[in-house]
Amino acid sequence: MSAAWITIAVLCAGTVAIKSVGPLALGGDPPSERVSAVIRLIAPALLAALIVYEALSVDGHGPEFDARLVGVGAAALGLLARLPLLVIVALAALATALTRALG
Amino acid sequence: MTTECQVQTGAEPQPPAAHPHVSDRRSGIRAGLPFALATFTLGISFGVLAEPVMGAVAPIVMSIVVFGGAAQFAALSALAAGAGAPAAIVSGLLLNARFLPMGFAVGPSLRGRPLRRAAQGQALVDASFALASRGDGSFDRGLLVWSTAPQALAWISGTIVGVLGGAAIADPQRYGLDAIFPAFYLALLAEEAGSRKAVAAALLGGAIAFALMPVAPPGVPVIAASVAALIGLRRG
Q: Measured between beta carbons, which residues in chain A are less than 8 angstroms from residue B209?
């Protein structure tokens, strides 16, 4: 087997395992108060990290400050103006594309 | 653990912790649809970049069975650099490791036998996690599962187009499509940040990711950010 196929097979098995642990460990019974106090904060912590990662990384490395930041700024303004989600996302793409076209 | 395998009749009164609304297939798919275009163009870029390294078939199989954009790009760059399978596997797994904390977060919201819950957990991707989060620690498992369907279709078909030589139409950056996901997560985070602790966890998580980005391998900054959720253990 070539390196590519070995990589695919192991990555597939590993990813299935990673995605299964939480649902197997915590599903079914309601978790304790302390556990839910922690898992309730996983979404905001990870979402913030994903924003940083998606806005600033290039091929996993960074930070690189580029036109994406203008898009995220436009999204923030759209949020303040209480625009619908789809409009906010479209604004971000438009602002980024315009910045690149002009710059 | 198959102790209390409750049959969901729908008429049964739920305990107060349970949330009544679970999206159906149609609304789940509709929720995932808007991001399919961005995912499709990313899939094309993956196919274009992967074909010279892995051949035509392997990238498509990879997009079907691994189904993780960031992990696939990371593994591909390791393979392209001639680093060999072990290095490619480690880089890929590091990026997908963020589904471990995400799995713990969604676990209590899934229903059914363990195997069924684990199967539902396979639908975890960044976008479905973000869409399904209700902001109170619970997740809409209908959104989690079904919003992933259009994304998967877009990712796989994009990879096929890319492998077949669709390079000309794939330039996500030109149309600013790479700004879609951070903007999307920002909008969903704004809904999440209902409590002071949630705001604190978000600020801390973002700061951890930012601080680690220049020094840690790809993927690690995002997983490390989940440590910020531990401030939930503090009283008050």
A: 48-49, 52-53
| B76: containing domain | 23-191
Q: Find out whether B38 and B181 touch, Cβ atoms under 8 Å.
A: yes
Domain count, chain B: 2
Q: Which residue among B75, B96, B179 places its CB closest to the CB of A68? A: B179
pLDDT at B231 over 70: yes
B residues 101-120 near A, CB within 8 Å?
Answer: 101-108, 110-112, 114, 117-118, 120
State the pLDDT at residue B236: 62
Supply the mean pLDDT for chain B. 86
The distance in angstroms from the start CA to the end CA of chain A is: 47
State ipTM.
0.91
Statement to judge: residues B117 and B216 lie in one domain: no
Residue B150 within any structural domain of the chain: yes
Distance separating alpha carbons of residues B97 and A60, to the nearest angstrom? 14
pLDDT of B116-164, one tens digit each?
999 999 999 999 999 999 888 889 999 999 999 999 999 999 999 999 9
Exposed, middle or buried, B122 (CB in 10 Å: 0-12/13-18/19+)?
middle
Is B125 in CB contact (< 8 Å) with chain A? no
Q: What global pTM score does this model have?
A: 0.84
Measure the CA–CA gap between B152 and B227, rounded to whole angstroms.
29
Contacts of A21 (CB under 8 A, 6+ apart): B100, B103, B104
Collect all residues of chain B within an 8 Å Cβ-Cβ radius of residue A74.
183
* B178 and B212 in a common domain: no
d(CA B112, CA B119): 10
Looking at residue B214, what DSSP letter applies? T
